[in-house]
Amino acid sequence: MTIFLFAFIRSLRRKSTLVAMFVLPLAIVFIRTLWTLENGRGFLFYGMIIMFAAFSLVRSIMIDRMTGTVVRIFAAPVATFQYLFQNLLAFWLIIGVQTIVFVVIGSALYGWGIEMAVRLILSYNIFAVASLAFSLAWNSMFRSKVMSDAIFSIIISLMALLGGIFIPISMLPDFLRKIGMLFPTYWLSNSLLFIQDKEWNGQYWLSILIMFLFSAAFLLYGSKRRLE
Amino acid sequence: MIAGMQNVVKRFGNVQALDHVSFAIHEGEILGLLGPNGAGKTTVIRTLAGLIKADSGEITLLGKKQDVNNIRLKQHLGLVTQEVTVFEELTAEENLRYFGGLYGVKGDKLRQRVKETLEFVGLSEHAKKVPGKFSGGMQRRLNIACALVHSPKFLIMDEPTVGIDPQSRSYILESVKRLTMEGTTLLYTSNYMEEVQAIASRIVIMDQGKVIASGTLDELVSRIQHEETIRITVSNPSVALAERFRAIQGVKTVMHNGADYTIVSGAGSDNLNRVLMVAQQRGSVSNIVADKPTLEDVFLTLTGKKLRDEEAGV
Ligand SMILES: Nc1ncnc2c1ncn2[C@@H]1O[C@H](COP(=O)(O)OP(=O)(O)OP(=O)(O)O)[C@@H](O)[C@H]1O
Ligand SMILES: [Mg+2]
Question: ipTM greater than 0.95, yes or no?
Answer without folding.
Answer: no
